[in-house]
Write a structure and sequence with these properties.
Blueprint (H helix, E strand, L loop, with lengths): L1 H4 L5 H21 L6 H11 L6 H26 L4 H12 L8 H28 L4 H18 L13 H17 L4 H21 L9 H14 L5 E4 L3 H8 L2 E4 L4 H4 L11 E6 L2 H4 L6 H6 L3 E8 L3 E7 L14
Length: 336
C-alpha cells in the first residue's frame, strides 16, 4: 500500500519498493500459509488501482514474489512430487484438528480480538461511512483484506482467535481512522481527554479480566510418548501420525512427521513423503473424528505396516512398525 499510494522520487524507486513489498508477501506466506489470502488481495489491489500500474510495475511485483517463492516450490516438488503439496497438507491438518466450532465463531470473538479501543474505533468508522454513504478505494482494499480471510477461515471447522491476525493490519488502520475522525469532531478538550483515558483504562481492565483459551494436553498422546516411545525407541526414531503430533513431539523428544491425509498418497508405495523407516501411531478414535484418514483395517492390509504393540491408556493406541519397502523388514535399527 505504501508503495502504491505515496509519492516517491522516481520510477526506479517505486519499482524497487514494489519488488521489496512483494518479497515480504512471499516471506509471510512461507512463515504462515494462511497468508496465501494476500495473493487475491494483491490482484484486487492491481484491479482497483489499475491506473497506477503499467507492465513494468506488474513485472516488478511478480519478480519480487517469485524470487522468494520459487526456491521453496522447487524444493517442494523435488521432495514430494508436487509444487503445492505442503500447502494442501497444511490445510488438511488444520481442517482435521479438534475441536470444531460453528461458522459464526469469528463474529463472536471479533470484539475480543479488537479490544475496547479497537472496537469503539471500528464502530465509529462504520457509523461515519454509513452517514457519508461513500467509501474510498483505499478503504475498499482494506475491507477486502478483512472480508476475504474471514470468508476463508469460516469454511475451516477448527477455528482459533489467533487466526484472525492475518487481518490485524487493516482492522487496526480502519479502527484508528474511525477513532481519530470521531475525536476530531469533539470540540471540548476535557471531553476528548476523558474519552481517551476511558479507552486506556478499559483496555487495561480488559487485559486483567480476559481469560484466554487454555489448550489441554491429550492424556493418551502424553502417556504413549512417555511410557512407550521414550522406552522403546532411540532418539533417531521417526514417528508418523495423523493425530496429536504437537504433544507427541513435546513429550517424546523424537522426530514427528505428520502422515499424509490423502489416502492415495499414504498408501502409495512410491511416495516421496513416507520414505524413512519408523513407527506409525493410530489412535483409536481418529477414524471417527476424521474420516479422511486411513482406517485401521486399510492399514493392516498394507505390508509396510506391522502391528508391534497396542498401548492402553484412556483409549487404545495401535503402534505399527513401518518400512517403506513393499515387503516388511524389521526396523531394529530404531529400537533399543
Amino acid at each position: 500500500w505504501y508503495g502504491d499510494h505515496r509519492d516517491l522520487h522516481s520510477l526506479r524507486r517505486r519499482q524497487r519498493q514494489m519488488c521489496i513489498r512483494d518479497r515480504f508477501i512471499g516471506v509471510s506466506i512461507l512463515s504462515r500459509f494462511t497468508y496465501l489470502v494476500l495473493i487475491p488481495i494483491a490482484f484486487f489491489n492491481v484491479v482497483l488501482f489499475r491506473n497506477k500500474y503499467n507492465f513494468r510495475k506488474i513485472v516488478a511485483l511478480l519478480l519480487g514474489f517469485i524470487l522468494v517463492m520459487f526456491p521453496y516450490l522447487l524444493w517442494c516438488y523435488r521432495s514430494y512430487g508436487s509444487f503445492f503439496y505442503t500447502f494442501r497438507e497444511a490445510q488438511n491438518i488444520v481442517r482435521a484438528a479438534a475441536p470444531t466450532h460453528p461458522w459464526y465463531f469469528y463474529l463472536m470473538v471479533f470484539p475480543v480480538f479488537l479490544g475496547p479501543a479497537g472496537l469503539v474505533g471500528f464502530v465509529f468508522w462504520l457509523f461515519i461511512k454509513i452517514k457519508e454513504r461513500r467509501i474510498r478505494k483505499k478503504e475498499c482494499l482494506l475491507l477486502s483484506w478483512i472480508v476475504l480471510p474471514l470468508l476463508y477461515l469460516t469454511t475451516i471447522p477448527h477455528k482459533e482467535t489467533r487466526y484472525l491476525f492475518v487481518a490485524f493490519v487493516p482492522i487496526l488502520l480502519l479502527s484508528s481512522t474511525g477513532l481519530l475522525n470521531f475525536l476530531s469532531k469533539i470540540k471540548s478538550r476535557k471531553f476528548k481527554i476523558s474519552i481517551i483515558l476511558f479507552l486506556i483504562l478499559s483496555s487495561v481492565c480488559f487485559s486483567f479480566f480476559y481469560k484466554p483459551f487454555t489448550r489441554i494436553c491429550n492424556h493418551d498422546a502424553k502417556a504413549v510418548a512417555e511410557d512407550w516411545i521414550m522406552n522403546n525407541t532411540n532418539k533417531s526414531a521417526v514417528i508418523y501420525t495423523h493425530d496429536y503430533f504437537p504433544y507427541l513431539g513435546y513429550y517424546s523428544n523424537r522426530t514427528i512427521i505428520v502422515a499424509p491425509f490423502n489416502k492415495e498418497v499414504f498408501f502409495d508405495k512410491n511416495s516421496l513423503y513416507m520414505k524413512i523407516p519408523g513407527y506409525y501411531l493410530y489412535f483409536e478414535d481418529q477414524e471417527k473424528r476424521n474420516p479422511v484418514v486411513p482406517s485401521r483395517a486399510e492399514i493392516e492390509k498394507d505390508p509396510r505396516f506391522k502391528l508391534v504393540n497396542i498401548f492402553q491408556n484412556r483409549k487404545k493406541i495401535y503402534i505399527y512398525a513401518y518400512n517403506p519397502g513393499s515387503k516388511f523388514v524389521s526396523t531394529k535399527s530404531s529400537v533399543k
